[in-house]
Amino acid sequence: MQNFEQSVYKLIVETSTNLPGDVRQAIKRAQEAEDRATRSGLSLSTIASNIEMAETKISPICQDTGMPTFVVHTPVGANQLVMKQQIRNAIAQATKDGKLRTNSVDSLTGGNTGDNLGPGTPVIHFEQWEKDTIDVRLILKGGGCENKNIQYSLPAELEGLGKAGRDLDGIRKCIMHAVYQAQGQGCSAGFIGVGIGGDRTTGYELAKQQLFRRTDDTNPIPELQKLEDYVMEHANQLGIGTMGFGGQVTLLGCKVGVMNRLPASFFVSVAYNCWAFRRQGVLLSAETGDIIDWVYPQGSELPMKDESAVSQAAEAAASMASESSERREVRLKMPLTEEEVRSLRVGDIVILDGEMHTGRDALHKHLMDHDSPVDLNGAVIYHCGPVMLKDEQGWQVKAAGPTTSIREEPYQGDIIKKFGIRAVIGKGGMGAKTLAALQEHGAVYLNAIGGAAQYYAECFKRVNGVDFMEFGIPEAMWHLQTEGFAAIVTMDAHGNSLHADVEKDSFNKLAQFKEPVFTS
Ligand SMILES: O=C(O)C[C@H](O)C(=O)O
Ligand code: SF4
């Protein structure tokens, strides 16, 4: 077992940096289904480039490298204590090397352990089996999509869908609702794992286990296969699209499992995973710990770049459409003026140069009753918790995509007005309070593409400084010299919100699925 730790390290790096082949296949199909000239189509192209960049640079696909969750099958009698220690060592090493973000935070003090180790992290499940090999599987599921997990207790009354009973049709309604309520906030298009039955804990566990199934497998239970097919077809009619921009593809995969329940309980648990569906596995020799095989097709087997003539023509058409009068591209230098910002409209693409500042949960809470360490008049705040590494030249940005903005809804409007901020960049959109503040003060919300952490890291040319390192690397306020950062205006200073429109439209579509489909 001398190579067990090294093999687990390789598994962690592969999982974080190289999206598996079956997941890539699902994203490629989405690209084919979506018109390339639309916002969703263009976002999918960026996602595809980001996947390639992460693989080439051996850097995290998304800056949120998630809750590392291992499922390990060992021969009877193998020493699990030693394995556990070696998994922990491999996690700490991968964090030090910038392949994982420092993601383990003390829930009471907010302190970041800095090495991804701490009470409850990483998660390691051991099972024994009769085989003489070791199977180690890993999923890195990020926090934004984890926040969109949902558990239903049947019978229930569901908005838009009416009564959901304790039967297959009630389950169908829960799953449709689960996709609807995620909107774009979990970086759609997503994958869902569904657990029917169990208790509140095992139901969610069963839902997560489904995410370990291959995206192209067949459910051994025919009724559940039918349900999966139904959801794949109809959830994609909700019109939520990539990042909630509207479009044909909202869901990339649906896997449903079932277990027994108590007579009084009937839970339907849904685990939502973003497009950056990072899970991989290795089969190891129990003697040496060497890798015998990979469990899922490796990403390198399926390049995301489509070199065919057809695709190049479509690409050219898309870029021409994006240059047409319908889509305005505006290049602005930070700090921004009120006039510049008030001239922007939902749908405009803004390209930013100059200095921007990151800020997420801890900073927003802090700024409510403290001063800012830098002048934020005209500033652009980026909701982002990057992966950073320090070398001889100083801090380097290793991965830096947006985080879910809605968490800052209680603070954002006040902070915009208090400091004179002119733009906020994030993903998933914000609510009515922020929209009103944008209009009142003269500011915009820009939606960046969630998960495209390598794509955006390239735009940060230099780290000008950092404040609040005591909040930990993801929560600190990084001052970043930026060139060519592109994002779409999805909430403008005139009271328009693409997010509110898509939510309303998808709600109307959801209500079309009210009538029973699976009758017993
Ligand atoms: O924590 C992050 O950087 C992002 C998070 O996964 C999110 O989706 O909001
Ligand atoms: S930012 Fe998006 S892609 Fe990254 S972990 Fe969060 S939900 Fe997933």
UniProtKB/TrEMBL annotation:
Question: What name is this protein filed under?
Answer: Fumarate hydratase class I
User: What does the record give as cofactor?
Assistant: [4Fe-4S] cluster
Fe-S hydro-lyase tartrate dehydratase alpha-type catalytic domain mapped to chain residues? 6-280
The answer to whether UniProt assigns keyword Acetylation to this entry is no
UniProt function note? Catalyzes the reversible hydration of fumarate to (S)-malate.
Catalysed conversion reaction: (S)-malate = fumarate + H2O
Assigned EC number? 4.2.1.2
Region (Disordered), start-end ranges: 306-330
Q: Which organism is it from?
A: Paenibacillus sambharensis
Give the quaternary structure: Homodimer.
Fe-S hydro-lyase tartrate dehydratase beta-type catalytic domain location is 319-501
Is the keyword Transcription assigned to this protein? no
Q: Which Pfam families match?
A: Fumerase (PF05681), Fumerase_C (PF05683)
